[in-house]
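Justification of computing resources. Each target in the renewal requires a structure prediction run like the one illustrated here; the chain below, 133 residues long, is used simply to show the kind of job we budget for.
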Amino acid sequence: MKDINIPEVKNVTLAVTRKQSPGESDEWKVYLLNRNDFPITNTLVASKGYGEKEGEKQQTSILRHFLQTVEANSFALIEPIDPAVFHLNNEYWVSYYVGPTIYDKRFVFVPDSIKEENLVHIAELDSAGVLHV
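Resulting structure tokens:
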């Protein structure tokens, strides 16, 4: 019996960015970054939050997003994210095609990882954010 070949996801990641507007509350958004020299297509992203607060289990709705094509060395907005869920595990299951091959990977921003001290400059977005590594 032959093992199933699961291709490794390379140069595709997520970032949560913060945009500060004077006199307004911060806007946080989740982006998919394609750092490959080729496009990825038919991308499906399922997002959800889960965890606990003060001993109570919490879970968000599962949201699904479809991105037709994310061009080479570019990015796409997945969704806005509310800071009220930063204390949860914020999971993004990403599946996409390169030619006939499907790739998928689960990205999890663990509780309280989306915070000021973890912000870095993300060149593609020309913005401060938390980059999933």
